[in-house]
Write a structure and sequence with these properties.
With about 300 residues, the protein is of the alpha/beta class. The protein has one domain: UDP-N-acetylmuramoyl-L-alanine:D-glutamate ligase. The strands form two sheets. The protein has a nine-stranded mixed β-sheet with strand order 5-4-1-8-9-10-11-12-13, with helices on both faces. It has a four-stranded mixed β-sheet with strand order 3-2-6-7. The radius of gyration is 19 Å and the shape is globular. The site of adenosine monophosphate has 16 residues, from strand 2 and helix 9. Adenosine monophosphate binds next to strand 2 and helix 9.
Length: about 300
């Protein structure tokens, strides 16, 4: 079993109302790998520059993640992203995106990465996602993320790759923008008609919703009194969600299994936002993950008392 992820490996500069970091390890594939490595051997695919230091590699290798397909580009500089959050963390403004080594990136997957049982296409240019998708012919579950930028400037390519995956994981607003539908229900059902058998709508601090066939499941975000930095929450969620699927190679990937996967994604994402960047998830333990999954189960289950209603 193994899980391949293609996406950004980055250095981020982030400012939130609770502090800032001028340069910290980030990137969608990094956050994903840190979470997914609780479930399976993860193989990130992506380029870094010569400035990507040993400490970053060591973090990436947490819980046995294999970095053989992380390409160090000679003379290159690692992808850099910088963003600032509003006072209630509801909005994020991107201040700078420097593609650097991503500008000329052509994903080359080792045989091991191509043979992955499960594949996650993190948010990168959709043509690159498709390129990787086509190389992983054995994957029994492929999920992907994207962002408003690609909906705007690479719409056709994005829809093409969506048609080749099993699950699309996207923010609610992006789903509505992508499909030009006025409600989340309509937007998710539209995407299901394009090919995927599941859609996960990320609802930020409100949690996430799952759509499969005619079924629906939703979980609130884990209740936290304090959030320090939401950067990477979506990718950490995806790491927990997709990782859970990877950890069940002999089970049918149905609504029930994906609902349980949602709980792991939600629990992992809740830890990610407690500190800056990868800081919290780097030292997270499996017991802590299980604790929050159990909490979520308790918090969201209720019994029905069939009270007589007045006509
Ligand atoms: P999230 O908060 O889940 O949207 O993920 C944030 C991470 O995505 C950061 O660590 C960034 O390095 C990375 N990121 C930001 N913009 C892009 C982009 N245009 N392409 C790829 N990765 C990005």
């Amino acid at each position: 079993m193994s899980l391949t992820v293609v996406g950004s490996l980055a250095y981020d500069a982030v400012k939130t109302p609770f502090g800032e970091r001028e340069r910290m390890l980030g990137g969608a594939a990094t956050h994903f790998a840190l979470a997914a490595s609780f479930f399976d051997v993860v193989r990130p695919v992506g380029p870094v520059g010569e400035d990507f230091d040993e400490a970053s590699f060591a973090t990436l290798r947490t819980r046995g993640t294999v970095t053989d397909d992380v390409e160090v580009v000679a003379g290159g500089k690692t992808f850099f992203w910088s963003g600032v959050y509003s006072s209630n963390l509801n909005e994020r403004e991107t201040l700078d995106t420097q593609l650097n080594v991503f500008e000329s990136f052509e994903p080359k997957l080792s045989q091991e990465s191509q043979d992955a049982d499960v594949l996650f296409l993190a948010n990168i240019q959709p043509d690159l996602q498709l390129h990787v998708r086509r190389q992983c012919t054995k994957a029994r579950f492929v999920a992907m993320d994207s962002m408003n930028l690609w909906i705007d400037i690479a719409n056709e390519s994005l829809k093409k790759v969506i048609g080749t995956v099993d699950c699309l994981i996207l923010n609610d607003e992006e789903l509505e923008q992508l499909t030009e539908k006025p409600t989340l229900q309509q937007a998710a059902r539209e995407v299901l008609s394009w090919g995927p058998r599941a859609v996960v709508a990320k609802l930020g601090k409100y949690g996430a919703a799952l759509f499969t066939g005619d079924d629906f499941f939703a979980l609130p975000a884990y209740p936290l009194a304090e959030v320090i930095d939401p950067t990477g929450a979506g990718d950490t969620f995806a790491g927990g969600f997709v990782g859970y699927v990877a950890a069940h190679p002999d089970e049918e990937i149905d609504h029930q299994l994906l609902s349980r996967a949602m709980a792991y994604g939600t629990a992992l994402a809740s830890y990610n936002v407690e500190e800056f960047g990868t800081e919290r998830v780097e030292r997270l333990t499996s017991d802590e993950v299980q604790e929050r999954v159990a909490d979520l189960q308790r918090m969201t289950a209720f019994s029905v008392d069939p009270v007589a209603l007045r006509a």
